[in-house]
Amino acid sequence: MRQLALARLRRTPGRYLACALAVALAVAFAVLVQLAGDAMAQVVRDGDTASVAGADIAVEAGWGEPGADAAVARVADLPGVAAVHRAGSVVRGAELPRAAGQPSVVVAAAPPEGALRWPELLDGRWPAAPGEVDVSGGTQGGEQVVVVGEPVVDEAGELVSDGGRLELQGVGVVDVGYAADFPLDALFLEPGQALRTGAGQGELLVAAAPGTDPAALRDAVAAAVGPESAAPLGEVLTGEELRDSRAASSAVLVLSLRTAVGAFAALAVAVAVVVVSNTYSVLLAQRVREQALLRCIGATRRDLWRAGTTEAVLLGAVAGVVGLLTGWGLAVLTRAVVGDRVPGDGLDLPVPGLVEVVGAPLLGAVAAVVASVAALVRAGQVSPLAALRPVEAVGETARTSLLRTVLGLLLVVAGGAGTVVGALGGSVGLALPAALLAFVGVLVLGRLLLPVVARLLGGLARAAGGPAGALAAASVGRHPRRTAATASAVLLGVTLAVTAAVGAGSLRATTTAELEAYTPVDVTVTAPDLDDDGATALAVEAAGVEGVGASTAAQAGPVVVARVEAGGGEPEVASYTQALAGDLTDVLPEADVPPDAGTVVLSAAEAELLRVATGDQVTVGPDSPEALGAPGAPVPAALVVVVDADTPVDVQLAPATAASVGAAPAVLVALVDGLGHEQVEARVDALTAAVLSAEPDAVLDAPVLLLGSVQQTFDVLLAVVTGMLGVTVVIALVGVSNTLSLSLVERGQENALLRALGLSRSRLRAMVAWEALVLGAVGAVVGLVLGVLFGVAGTWSLLGGPSEAVVAVPWAWLVGLVVVVAGVAVGASLLPAHRASAAAPAGALGAAG
Predict the structure, then answer these.
(1) In this prediction, what percent of the chain has a pLDDT beyond 90?
(2) Is the N or C terminus of the chain more exposed, i.e. has fewer CB atoms within 10 Å?
(3) Helices (DSSP H) in 339-399: which residue ranges?
(4) Strand (E) positions, 542-697?
(5) 280 near 372, Cβ under 8 Å?
(6) DSSP three-state, residue 595
(7) Which are the contacts of 504, defined by CB distance < 8 A and separation ≥ 6?
């Protein structure tokens, strides 16, 4: 039987080519995912452990204990210790050159020279004395940096201290890479001064001198400051144990990402199994006479089973090896393109390990065998005498078993009902498994459903394609099971791609709407001593910047809004938000006119939060604990509510009222519509430069940057998911090409007769193209409908129901997807059509006879 399998593969290799290609693509994707997962784990681990990469020993220190400093000195004096460093950082506000306001920075002690000095020094030198600092980010060495301490407020809300200002001189510029514990710009101070800012409260890191036994050094450190020592400082770990501990915090995230990406690889393998299964069904149907002859000369069903499985194993294993090499090549190519732009020291050269080398051919073989089982079982059920009848005598219908039909209907009805209930109720735990059940039900009913859709689309092909379209529609309708199997593979990929697109688009729209409602103004400019005249001048300056649509002087400030309770009791509901005052219509056309003194205009969302309506009373006061109760401080004002359902401003006050509750002059800026994220960044940079040139102490708050970043994140997510699901669609379209190729071989006599009756080669090629178009369109159209429904249901269930979500169906993207699928399906038909049209009619008729 092994010789028979090899003979079949050698005799008609072309019939297996597309089948092997589908398996190879799926295996290549799985290998690429595995290698990418290894690289991702490496990058995350490097980021988690960058700041402790050079530590040989670490002490998890308790710095509040008496004698901690003396313990550090004892460790430093131990034989074999090259250096010690108190790790740990603290986040502080800072005043940096060319940066508006007081951005947060990470403050840490400069590591000692040697293995523990992990940041890269780009320019200058390391700080050697108090008052010196090394900086990262956009600040240059030699410039002044001010670190602002944290303000201290007592229990009564009184401001005890503003935290002080630490003026430093930059002496160097460093690069911290993508260290996870340094997510912001970093300042490295002289160690003693860093400790006084609150930094250095992490582990005590120890670097061993060359030639020192790490185990002996660990014992020595443990004896000096370990939990069992006379002056315990904390638990003693090896450097590797510390790095493993830090990396463990991200292990769950890495595992989740690998699982999510692995699901796409599993989907690609599943689609390949569908393609191979359909191929084997056609192949074995074409071998009925051969199978019958083998049975007549003594071959048993077991022999035929062995021959078929051997054939599948060989095909899958070879395709698996090709997939291994292809996936490895793609990984190497990916590293060459993006390796230097990833966090850390870049990506290592991906090298397949034992899992990939053994797993790739094994995965290919298993996929091919699983795909062939159903066809081999059906082939073994044919008796020798029945199989000797002509192939054409064996008809094919769309009929399916009653059990399959009932099961499919139950899955669709139960899954559909659960999906609707979960979507309307905002329960993703119910909607997700229910939608999966409904989708499985659709696939189970595919033999009944998809041929019906194929007949409808075939009618369009007849109307648009003339005789070629009519012949293609007839051919698709003649083989309903084959049509259903081929279209199911396309359906699977398109459904998931459309679901992801609708879900990502809706999440993007919902997040955008929430951010715009929370921060309706693109850019707000404030300054410590800005008055009304200065705000007006800054508004004029801002209006002249390219990309600014409008700017206006107004008043802005954080406030607390509370509902006035009947009887004068304590308010049950309060809202901390931003209040605006002035004529805002230039920047926010939907905003209300300035209200009268004694009233406040609330948005519908704010009114719903406070549970008030027009005519009710609220108090509006400053959101500033240190200001409450201080001499001359603003006091809350009792105001009458006016609810405006159209305004994007949560709280709008009269100018006089705003000043009384602590609001300050500000400039509100609206950028022109239609800008991309990079264009918005450029316009905000230009606006910042113009404003700072006129008012050096100005502070710019630009929520529009966050909005653009969020939108860009969703766009990238959609592109990644689409790319991954695109692999499954490509594999499915390979199945379309393979089905056409085998079908045309099967219809060789029919095509020859058509040619003899006058059908030109061009019309024969058009017939094949229309057939491919119908097969691809069946899966694409049904997948489009299901994907939109599942995407909307998933969005509702994830966000809490229809009222909490903004559904955004990317129709242009969906139409583009259908066009691409149809175009690729037609492209997949070119080679089979060329082969069919190249055959001479007389030769084909003679071969068939």
Answers:
(1) 9
(2) C
(3) 354-380, 384-387
(4) 548-563, 574-581, 599-603, 617-622, 637-644, 651-653, 664-671
(5) yes
(6) coil
(7) 714, 717, 718, 721
Length of the chain: 849
Do the bridges between strand 664-671 and strand 523-526 make them parallel or antiparallel, or are there none, so unpaired?
antiparallel
Question: How do residues 580-597 score in pLDDT, each as one tens digit?
Answer: 888 888 888 888 777 888
Buried b (16+ CB within 10 A) or exposed e, 826-849: bebbebbbeebbebebeebbeeee
Tokens standing for residue 599? 């009233």
Q: Is the CA virtual torsion 343, 345, 350, 355 positive or negative?
A: negative
Q: Which two tokens stand for residue 837?
A: 């049209």
For residues 820 and 835, what is the distance between their CA atoms, to the nearest angstrom? 24
Backbone angles phi, psi at 273, to 5 degrees: -60, -40
Instruction: Please name every residue paired with 147 in a beta bridge, in sequence order, or none if there are none.
Output: 94, 166
**pLDDT tens digits for range 103-129:** 678 889 999 999 999 998 888 899 988
Query: 775 is written with which tokens?
Result: 């097969």
Q: CA 652, CA 551: separation in Å to the nearest integer?
A: 17
Pairing of strands 574-581, 651-653: parallel
In this predicted structure, the answer to whether residue 163 has a pLDDT above a threshold of 50 is: no
**Res. 517 pLDDT band, cuts 50 70 90:** confident
User: Token pair 């909607």 is at which residue?
Assistant: 431
- In the predicted model, is pLDDT for residue 373 greater than 50? yes
Decide: 430 and 797 in contact? Cβ < 8 Å: yes
Is residue 413 very low, low, confident or very high in pLDDT (cuts 50, 70, 90)?
very high
Across 726-823, the runs of DSSP E, i.e. the strands, are none
**Residue of 728, 743, 726, 725 lying closest to 278 (CA atoms):** 743
Strand order in the sheet with 81-86: 81-86, 204-208, 57-61, 234-238
DSSP classification of residue 398:
S
Q: Is 260 exposed, middle or buried (0-12, 13-18, 19+ CB in 10 A)?
A: exposed
Task: Summarize pLDDT for 134-161 with one digit per residue, the tens.
Answer: 888 654 444 556 565 544 434 444 433 4
**Cβ atoms of 750 and 848 closer than 8 Å:** no
**Type of residue at 229:** S
